[in-house]
Design a protein that fits this description.
- The chain is of the alpha/beta class.
- Helices cover 47% and strands 14% of the residues.
- Strand 7, helix 9 and strand 8 form a beta-alpha-beta unit.
């Protein structure tokens, strides 16, 4: 883990995921720095992107000043921070697998000094053969539906396809099957890649996604 600030000059902390927030506290627990982190949080504005980081922070008795509204995307986080003076201030962002470039660019455009806390990273699997088999099966029209549960899954699938020269085949295959998305962030990533989204979970949780998929596959039309 890198980038944990230990000086009390942070005006805001932004927590984006529950697993990342939990990993941060696990790291500070092991290093004996949790009291320092809690002191920093006590003197800063704490912003959360959704209910999962909220639950973790409440378990540590951390106050929460601003919480993004449903559907808990970057847009809602920035809307909550709209009136927060940022010029010359340090904003600490708990990263979720990869840099949230929209969030970082907007904060920096408003004069903030952005520091990322990197508690985990998304990456390609060592064995990409299953992904290549999926791409080939899509090309043969053997797949009825593909479900994506994160934006990174979509990005990684297209990265693997590009490495193997199958990006166009993948896009065409997805265009001939149903595509389900866990929520608006994932859907935006798919649309950016040129993929049509047929099903989106509401709210953006696994249970509603499965229900929506079952409904779509049960529809005789």
């Amino acid at each position: 883990m890198t980038g944990i600030p230990l000086r009390p000059i942070c005006s805001s902390f932004i927590f984006q995921t529950g697993v990342g927030t939990r990993a941060l506290f696990a790291a500070t627990d092991s290093l004996g720095l949790t009291d320092v982190l809690l002191q920093l949080l006590d003197s800063a504005q704490v912003v959360v992107r959704g209910p999962k980081p909220t639950t973790v922070l409440h378990s540590r008795k951390v106050h929460i000043d601003r919480a993004a509204s449903n559907p808990f995307t970057t847009h809602e986080v920035l809307a909550e921070m709209h009136k927060t003076p940022l010029r010359g201030k340090r904003v600490v962002v708990q990263r979720y697998g990869e840099t949230n470039r929209e969030l970082q660019a907007t904060l920096e455009r408003n004069g903030a000094d952005v520091t990322e806390i990197v508690t985990y990273r998304w990456g390609l699997p060592e064995d990409t053969a299953p992904l290549l088999r999926l791409i080939d099966a899509l090309g043969r029209d053997e797949i009825d539906l593909v479900a994506f549960t994160s934006a990174s899954q979509a990005s990684n699938l297209f990265t693997v396809a590009q490495y193997d020269g199958k990006q166009q085949s993948l896009k065409q295959g997805l265009g001939r099957t149903l595509v389900a998305s866990i929520g608006p962030v994932c859907s935006a990533a798919l649309r950016k890649l040129g993929v049509r989204v047929d099903i989106e979970a509401h709210p953006q949780k696994l249970g509603p996604l499965i229900d929506a998929i079952n409904t779509a596959l049960s529809d005789p039309c």
